[in-house]
Design brief:
Helix content is 29%, strand content 22%. By secondary structure, the protein is an alpha+beta fold. The strands form 8 sheets. A 7-stranded mixed beta sheet has the order 12-13-10-20-17-18-19, with helices on both faces.
């Protein structure tokens, strides 16, 4: 029998593709060893090259005597290019030559501030922070040059990578000044002057990904590429139902599989689940193949616990009944009951969005080594500080003794901010005394996710003679995200209710917004745009229904609902505003109105001739402090097949650091939204998730994704806001509204596969 050899993805490609022919080779490149590929990959306690540089005024910047500038990326890279965009801001304030910049990936460490790359707030939260870090280094270099020349610092300035004395023309490079600058005191913040917008070199102009060459040449290192000598591979059979426990386990047949060395029981979590390992039985082996094959041979008798009664069809009925039942009021203005009682014309509708899985292209994977009381972990994680917290809790060690090295992420969408899979690797390494690499299959990824909440929504409006609402009631019911931290949680928390629900922006005199209780039976988590997905779907589809009922143009009607520019008043309402100060980021309906007007213009709304079975739809929404309006064009044939020829999106995200990258985020959001709308649905029977791979949980294929997506960025002096998530919420209702125009059939329930869109015979 031939020995099994572990082969990396890039090694496999080198072995099979030679001279343009497909050849199965006998030799393969070994997996990358950490510390041998680039300076980003280290196994020490996380000191960066910036830390070790000659001039190191703060945690984000280092300058070497050869002129190399090290900039630390403390957020995780998963395709948003944040590993480029934030360092680009530092480089701009430093007046650094981008060609002489090298980027360090930070480990998890509280000295960097919040490292959870989630919630579309990396630029918003750290724009000023990293500007000051670059400007501080620039001032120290200027002062060092002035001291050397014996002139006032005020007479000196920087050009790219150089300090210049204006009157004499003398010049010194950053490398020449690094040693002298390192001996100076770090300036206080009030001494540091930021560059004016007119002097920005990179901000607002952008840059391609720092990692682009490595990405396209196969050198980029993802979680699956992590390797340590002597490590074992682990595949874990998790309890099929949340909260399940092992009754009995028979590992005899699993241990007969070549390459399998042992099996280990992983203890079940103690409620609430939070980010704890789910529990189960791990099969450890010398290859992923052996671990997977051994796992199939396990014989386990499970106690599935109380969640075995969970049935998604029955649960759907409970949610819909709850949405029709008066519930907790979270925002109220005027007198809704009186308005409904005195108005003859009312309209109501119910909407439903199922559980959604993240399904990033790279399933969960992590490598961990417990040694000498410390854990080193290598993981594609959105939140290395959460890794520190859960691993320290599971093993009873200090947080600072958990060193989390962050690899590139093969997609995330919020799933990889929940580090249960990293905790699994650490727990197993602690148990077996060797490095352990936990690898989830696609089936694991789909069936043991932290799902975006299923939601039922009830909408009702009292209408005047022209069909415009004089009263508006909306009620949502969904299992709360907080249930993973609190087993008694049944209501949505303010942070998720704010997402397209509490902040309904229409100019309606009588308004009531409610939220009903429901218990979770699976792990609920945040997925790209989170509660905005189902809330925007309900509000924007209902708005479109009212427009057509009034025989009004949907775009004109939407603008009427938004009303004249004003700032929403949330006095007495629990509205966290995505964690931002409201005086800095007020909810301005004028900005929502502007993007709506612009998308009407840019899309040629009402001016383009559409063919048979075609339609256009519109929606507008604010999320993560960004205002977005989207027009979607569809074509639906007699069999109900949906084609999306064109999408137009207008975005007001305030100041945009990296425009092309930002546009790419909204292009990607259209594809992501297509997947959610077309086929995104997780269901359960007897507590077990029924979907397991892309055959049962499809994502949009190239022929199903939008053919052309046009993204227009509003020039704005407003502070920067989020861009990773805000494109998803308006896309889905705009798509469904377009389908109504094309077919005459309303989509009130997702996914589209649940609605027969074919022509009736």
């Amino acid at each position: 029998m031939s020995a099994i050899e572990n082969v990396s993805r890039r090694g496999f490609l080198k072995g099979v593709a030679t001279a343009g022919a497909l050849v199965l080779g006998a030799c393969y490149a070994p997996e990358i060893l950490w510390g041998q590929q680039s300076n980003d990959l280290r196994t020490d306690d996380g000191q960066t090259d910036a830390d070790k540089a000659t001039l190191h005024p703060n945690v984000f910047v280092g300058v070497e005597t050869d002129g190399t500038v090290w900039i630390v990326a403390h957020r995780s890279e998963m395709g948003t290019v944040i590993r480029t965009s934030l360092p680009l801001v530092v480089a701009d304030e430093l007046d650094a030559d981008w060609k002489r910049v090298k980027i360090d990936q930070a480990i998890g460490d509280p000295r960097y501030g919040d490292q959870n790359t989630d919630g579309s707030h990396s630029i918003r939260s750290f724009f000023d922070v990293v500007r000051f870090s670059g400007a501080t280094a620039r001032l120290m270099l200027i002062r060092a040059a002035a001291q050397q020349w014996g002139v006032p610092a005020s007479e000196c300035q920087t050009e790219i990578h150089t300090v210049v004395h204006s009157s004499s023309g003398r010049r010194l490079g950053y490398g020449e000044l690094a040693t002298a600058a390192s001996k100076l005191s770090v300036p206080k913040k009030d001494e540091v002057q930021l560059k004016p917008k007119s002097a920005w070199r990179y901000i607002g102009k952008g840059m391609t990904s720092y990692d682009l060459t490595d990405l396209v040449t196969g050198k980029a290192v993802y979680g699956m590429d992590a390797h340590l000598e002597g490590m074992l591979y682990a595949s874990i059979e998790h309890p099929p139902v949340l909260g399940g426990k092992i009754k009995t386990v028979d590992s005899a047949e699993a241990l007969k599989v070549a390459g399998v060395s042992r099996t280990v029981v992983v203890d079940p979590f103690k409620p609430p689940p939070a980010f704890q390992p789910l529990g189960g039985v791990a099969v450890l082996a010398n290859s992923t193949w052996a671990a997977f094959q051994g796992r199939k041979k396990l014989k386990i008798d499970w106690d599935n616990g109380p969640n075995e009664t969970y049935d998604s069809d029955q649960y759907k009925k409970e949610l819909q009944e709850g949405a029709r039942t008066p519930a907790k009021v979270i925002r109220s203005q005027g007198d809704v009951d009186k308005a409904f009682a005195s108005t003859a014309q009312t309209y109501e509708a119910d909407y439903y969005v199922p559980l959604l899985a993240h399904a990033p292209m790279e399933p969960m994977v992590a490598l961990a080594e417990f040694k000498d009381g410390k854990v080193h972990a290598w993981a594609p994680t959105q939140n290395p500080q959460a890794v520190q917290a859960i691993v320290s809790s599971e093993l009873g060690i200090r947080k600072e003794d958990v060193i989390c090295h962050v690899t590139l992420l093969g997609g995330g969408f919020g799933r990889k901010s929940k580090p249960d899979y990293v905790a699994e690797a650490a727990v197993l390494s602690h148990k077996v005394g060797r490095p352990v690499k936990v690898v989830w299959t696609r089936e694991d990824d789909i069936q043991f996710d932290y799902y975006n909440a299923v939601a039922a929504m009830y909408m009702k409006a009292a209408l005047d003679s022209k069909g415009k609402p004089v009263a508006w009631l909306q009620r949502s019911v969904f299992p709360p995200i907080t249930s993973i931290f609190d087993v008694n949680a049944v209501y949505g928390d303010p942070g998720h209710l704010q997402q397209g629900w509490t902040d309904m922006p229409y100019d309606i005199p009588n308004l009531r917004i409610e939220n009903g209780p429901v218990k979770a039976h699976v792990r609920i988590g945040w997925l790209r745009s989170v509660a905005n997905i189902y809330h925007a779907f309900a509000v924007q589809t209902f708005s479109d229904e009212l427009a057509h009922r009034a025989k009004r143009d949907p775009a004109d009607y939407l603008l009427d609902l938004i009303g004249q520019p004003r700032t929403l008043n949330f006095t007495g309402v629990d509205y966290p505003n995505y964690g931002a100060a409201y005086d800095t980021y007020p909810w301005e309906t004028g900005r929502l109105r502007r993007v709506t007007e612009m998308v009407v213009e840019k899309s040629g709304w009402g001016k383009r001739k559409l063919g048979k079975g075609a339609g256009v739809g519109i929606a507008a929404h604010r999320s993560f402090l960004t205002y977005v309006a989207t027009v979607v064009e569809v074509e639906v044939n007699d069999q109900g097949d949906v084609r999306i020829p064109r999408v137009d999106t207008v975005v007001d995200a305030g100041l945009v650091v990296n425009p092309e990258v930002t546009k790419a985020q909204f292009e990607g959001a259209a594809v992501f939204g297509t997947s959610v709308a077309r086929s995104g649905e997780i269901t359960a029977k007897n507590g077990v998730i029924e979907q397991s791979n892309f055959d049962t949980y499809p994502v949009a294929r190239i022929n199903e994704a939008p053919y052309q997506t046009n993204v227009y960025l509003v020039e704005s002096d407003a502070p920067p806001a989020g861009v990773g998530e805000p494109g998803v919420p308006p896309f889905i209702p705009a798509l469904c509204n377009a389908i109504y125009v094309a077919t005459g059939k309303r989509v009130r329930e997702l996914p589209l596969s649940r609605t027969d869109l074919g022509k009736q015979s």
